[in-house]
Structures
1.
Amino acid sequence: MFKNYFLTAWRHLLKNRLFTAINIIGLSIGLMSCVLILLFVQDELSYDRIWEDSERLYQVNTTYNYPGSPANTTSRVTGRMKEAMRLYFKDDIEAATRLNSMNSTVRIGGSAFKEAIQFVDAEFTELFQLDVINGDMSVALSNTSNIAINASFATKYFGNINPIGQTLEVAVYDLNRVYTVAAVFEDLPHNTTLSFQALALIDESAFLSAPWEFDGWDSANGWLYFKLRSDSDEVKVSSQLKDFINSNVVIPSYVSTDKNAQPTDFWNYSFQKLVDVQLNAISNDDQMKELGALTKVVSFSIVAMLILAVACVNFVNLATAKSTKRAREIAIRKVLGAQRGQLIRQYLGESLLLVGIALLIGLVLVELLLPFFSSFLNKHLTLELANPMTLLQLVAFVLVIGLLAGAYPALALSNVVPATVLKANKSAGQGQSVLLRQVLVVFQFAISIGLIVATGVIYAQTQYSITKDVGYNTTNLLSVRNFGTAQAAAHQQAIRDRVQRLPGVTSVAVTSSRPAGGGRNSRALQLPGQSINGLSLAVQAVDHEFLETFDIPLIAGRSFDRARSTDGTPRAEGAKPGEVLQGTVMINEKAVTRLGFGTPDQALGKAIRIVIAMVAEQEVYADLSVIGVVKDTVYHRPRNEGWGEAYYLEPNYPMGGLTIRYAGERTELVEGVRGIWQNLIPTVPFQYEFVEDVIQQAFSAEKQLAILFVVFSLLAIIVACMGLYGLAAFTAEQRTKEIGVRKVLGASVYDIVRLLVWQFSKPVLLACLLAWPVAIFAMLNWLETFPYRIDTWILFPICLGAGAIATLISWGTVGGNAAKVARANPVRALRYE
Amino acid sequence: MLQLNNLSKIYRTSEVETTALDNVNIEISTGEFAAIMGPSGCGKSTLLNIIGMLDTPSSGEYLFMGENIAGYSEALLSNIRKRNIGFIFQSFNLIDELTVSENIELALLYHDIPVSERRDRVETVMDKVGIAHRAGHMPSQLSGGQQQRVAVARAVVGDQAMILADEPTGNLDSSHGQEVMEMLQALNEEGTTIVMVTHSPSHADFARRTINLFDGQVVAENIRAA
Ligand SMILES: Nc1ncnc2c1ncn2[C@@H]1O[C@H](COP(=O)(O)OP(=O)(O)OP(=O)(O)O)[C@@H](O)[C@H]1O
Ligand SMILES: [Mg+2]
């Protein structure tokens, strides 16, 4: 019995080569996409589940909520938070650890390198378990001159030598210490949001000169993770959080002098399950790594299902189209005693066979493409066929798809009435399945059109983001890293001056933060004569060449002038407690609005008051009058909107950015700067980047999304086209006689092609009407996630374009068949009856 | 073998009502060879389909081997059918994807018969209809006469007591037609009941009894002397 089913199925597949090929290729592509995307999704969902008790691990976030400006949440917190939480929540928190990478330099054998060293608390190992290859983590984190390094760090610097007991020097701020390697651990797997090459115990006493790292409440520079006790719960901690903040956190007087204000009016802390961070982080800002996005996971899952749906539609369409022929076979089987159940099982078995074959081919494709796919996504994805879970999933795939695709044809076919089918050459009632096929073709086109629209919008938005005006000229700008390290600080002026003299260098700017370098430093300020609490602007300390180097237009007033010694923030040395000194400042347009200064021209001459020093426990103020208003820029984070910013010319402000505008060749310039750097500060690694590249990279996630979307949409469209081609071939074949008669009656080839092409254009039009609203709705929602987005009217030409593409595709697919049939000799067509 | 009492069949479509069979009374006894004749559209095929339980009458009684089969479920009917009735069609109705022997074996698949016995029976019946040398061929590689012989083999391989043949020679030339008729006659002589629809008077002569239909009614019956 089974053999007979199998034989009929097999020979049927062989006989209808075109249909079999269409079905198998379509389903293979569909299954391949599904498996690839499933691997991607599973991987995204696996983040940070490698840790024991991962469900009890949390990341803490800080939200700055200053009245009048939008709340700003970062994934980092102040260093004091850890002890405070441990104490307050001692019954709820089992362990907690900070991770703070700062910006350390590693020196081994006279050379300097940048490695991601995280300074952590000893409790680190209670939260995160590393695979120790050599040595002992608890020893490594037991004193402040031991270090644990990962395997690639060990091979890179120590080669084949046993790294345990080897020493290396770490320099950051005033810390300059020889560390002894006490443990080597396996590199972190890619599916964690943590990132580090080495771990060392925090020594707070070594960072007294940088109080913002571990002291004070007003700066968030490190990460904090805690592990909840198994007998406590999230809700309980949440409910006490406000109380905790208000009884622990101290709001500095420059934020608010209002005695009745609560700390929670300005600063809030929240926490989130670590396992949710990868896809659903409260804050994407300042995480250790680029995170994933739930929208990406969801949209790819949808695309995978659409491709598969298109392939299933092909199957149903072709199977029902062919059913007239198969109806006879079924009728005979019924006459010979087959029962409906047996026939249904037979035909479902057939579709399962087909899906099974497609799965095998799909898996081969997956194996071939997986290396490219995972390197494209920067992941290490593997298909573990030996894993029973994977096998179970694949079997489930085959069953679900086989049943989905096979159910309708099986039910329809097994319903055949033998007396009707066998009696004459009459074809069995086809009305229903013709309608079904039309509906399904419309559905396929709707999917294709929707995907084309989505692809178009994603592409347009990505292009827009990358080429968007950031307010300054990003081309021909070289940005040098590590300029702010303690070792470089003393040589900044010399480096600047020498770089300025290099051939090809047009202008050099020294700023407090690097362009597109992330971060956000704010400074609280007041307006003289007014008492507004919680007023603040982002800080950028600049030099005289800032505007010229970055090519930022001045909207009103003037830039800082070397000739005027009173320009900039005054020095506080020698000032008396409570004294108010005078100086100048530049602000951007957003700041003008934020401060309520009216127009840029009206802003000139108005003053802001900042605290510049504390003398005898009392503030020394500076009133800075606005001398210039500059155009808004998106300077710090290319993906965000710019913010209100003040530009200070301020002696002693730590400067971290060296940016060079050049006219010549890239490599020559880099070598020139490197020479100067290595000559003056050989102990600091020379690292650089071109600003336009950094901005491009900031949108690499969107670019990746766009490329994958294009690829998968194309696959869906190809599969749909194949199905349409098969259906067109079938229709043309079926209508051979009708076409013969029409030709005998005088229809031209053109008339006939038009007839057939029109038959397939109607579904496209219908599909447009279905797909457009859905696609527009979905894409408008997607665009909402961007602070900067393309004009929404662009959706209309994209929709029309998608419709036109679909129409052309349908003509191209159908036209060939139509022409062939139309050109055939009518006599031959008619004789075949 | 079977008995039809006041049997009628009316086809209703939205526009017209066709009375295909009108109060037909026929009795066919075991071992008989009956030919049904009549002009096109008089209801011959309809009658045969009802006898073969592929169709149900609109009114009247159908006793098969003494049992009134009215109201039997489809599963039950298909069970009775597969054990007792073999079909032969004008257009052969072989399955294109199966070989000659597989087509014949198909009739045994829906019975519970072990593989080896199935093989034997298929061999025997192929020898009997003289198609054994074509066992591995596909239907499309055979002539019409050969295809119909396969169909005959398929109809009897399950030891069916009755064969229903609807114009078995309609698509064949006269010599092939003759061969098939001889084969049916031989089967009849071995005891198989045969009911056959035909337009050919000479082929009707193979039957001992001829039933003439006109407009759904039995108009004449001839029984030829043995
Ligand atoms: N499914 C049906 N629906 C409606 N009318 C039908 C149906 N099947 C048969 N008829 C009608 O019933 C009548 C008898 O049909 P039947 O096929 O039994 O004729 P026949 O005697 O076998 O003719 P022929 O010699 O041409 O095969 C015809 O008028 C036919 O149109
Ligand atoms: Mg007939």
Note: The CA atoms of residues 42 and 137 of chain B lie 37 Å apart.
2.
Amino acid sequence: MAEPVFAPWADPNEKPLIQFKGVTKRFGDFVAIDNLTQDIFAQEFFALLGPSGCGKTTMMRMLAGFETPTEGQILIAGQDMAGVPPNKRAVNMMFQSYALFPHLSVAENIAFGLKREGMPKGNIDDRVKEMLRLTRLERFAQRKPHQISGGQRQRVALARSLAKAPKLLLLDEPLGALDAKLRQQTQFELMDIQEKTGTTFVIVTHDQEEAMTVASRVAVMDEGRIMQVATPAEIYEQPNSVYVADFIGDVNIIEGTATPEGKGYDVAWAEGQRPFHAETDKSFSKDQRCFLAMRPEKVAISTDEPEARNRVQGKIIDIAYLGNLSTYHVELPGGTMMKAQTANTRRLSRRALTWEDQVWLSWTDTAAVMLEG
Amino acid sequence: MKRFSAFNAVSLTLGFAFLYLPMLILVIYSFNSSKLVTVWAGFSTRWYGELLQNEAFLDAAWVTIRVAVVSSTIATVLGTMAALVLVRAGRFAGRTLFSGMIYAPLVMPEVITGLSLLLLFIGIGLDRGVLTIILAHTTFSMCYVSVVVSSRLVSFDRSLEEAALDLGCTPFQAFRLVTLPIIAPAVISGWLLAFTLSLDDLVIASFTAGPSATTLPIKIFSAVRLGVSPEINALSTIMIGIVTVGVITASLISKRATLRQQAEEQAAIRA
Ligand SMILES: Nc1ncnc2c1ncn2[C@@H]1O[C@H](COP(=O)(O)OP(=O)(O)OP(=O)(O)O)[C@@H](O)[C@H]1O
Ligand SMILES: [Mg+2]
């Protein structure tokens, strides 16, 4: 039997845990958050993605109570948070700068919030041990923050924010300083915690793969605004703008003009070249400027001319070998560059394509997403 | 390594002689049995004995210590609070004026500070005594405390306090459990500074002391005006002794703290 899909945002009866209602935050003249309205539901793993300075930390700080919105309202569990101080919010935050207490040991740092709760000593010790084990810090329990490495410090900060098991956890780049393997393990630990305790996570990350792995929904931000909120798969396959398509993963963007044709449009992209065809539900007027967004892995590369309607010949300029994958940079007539990615199922020596080769690129009618801008 | 040249040896000797010869002479003559300060007449501890009989000196010493402890403690509390406001409060109307006024007494001639305090105490009809000296010393030494503490607070990472709040502390708990332990060295040196300032203040104390209470510096100063007595030498030697013991103890304590911390670190690494 299939598990019911977790999608509270699609259910109109579901009450959101967090509601941003027209929230604007200004620092002087600078608009850090621009009229933002967004719901986040209980038990979500909500990832904030965006370039540096787009307002991710500011959003978190408003949730934790360190900044007050200049305009608008933030509600948590239906309650207006205006005037509620940070220590009265059932929210814990992991700081981007870690903010570990330098005069306390690793164990004392983790125990800090539990002591304030008045938890009995024995329980505190157990909980601290559990957190140390989870973050693989057992050996460093008695050290001071300045006596451990950057990645270890990051894990202490994570353990400290997890210790109180709050209803809502805000993690500001929780895994950035960890090596790939430890990061992956910790991601799974977090998902596990999320599953067991039903904690709601809001997480900032610069790592798209991480967002894709852990998140129930991803929000892509730019200059204080949320550009798109959707499940990882939707964000990847159906970006709503060139910005989002370009921000998430690798993508080929081709500009052209649309002409209705069949179930979609023909897109004229270069003088004297056959137009590309893309199917879409969106409607464009004749000769409207549009963009085609195509993931490199959906573009096939071959030496012989393929059958597909969308095909174009070009010259290989560069090959990026990534181990499991190779990305070919192909120059199309008129100078447009396009990337095609193939899985390296054969050993290197067996592959036929090399620099300066003339090759054919092709893709299906549904591979490209048509965007207005 | 460079050889220890004759030039170095000479400059070192001269430097130390310059610093310590006057004190050394004072210490030696405090053991002089003669009543004449400049004539050596054999070793004796007679003047120390007489000093212990001299109620006026003992009273003055007791007043000095009480004043120093109480005024430096109050000054530390007030100075730290002022520093917090100055560093933390951001922009508010009159901030520049306030911070300027906090630092003004640092450059104000002591005579003026003393005189104005004297006028104030007379104006409000406060009898001069221990209380007025304490108030006066608090007034001028809290500026020093606030300078020392605010220079530490400037580099203090606010996010530590935010983290404490986030973990359930009230603002006061956050201050007590996080901010204060971290800035404690600055607060302690502020206290020590205030304490020493109070110990050796002569000018302000002479304006604000009354017949009921004088401090040791005033006592010594007025005694010396009638001629240096061997008793004063003995008293000064005792003060030098106390300061020396204090300094050595303080450095031993901090040395031991460092050693213990290192041991802890090592234990942590082995564990
Ligand atoms: N206290 C402040 N005063 C003035 N400007 C601020 C303040 N805090 C943040 N900003 C500005 O607001 C914008 C958003 O900052 P924020 O810290 O939210 O970025 P971010 O998305 O978390 O970036 P990063 O990925 O680099 O952490 C930035 O341009 C920043 O300079
Ligand atoms: Mg940030």
Note: The mean pLDDT of chain B is 86.
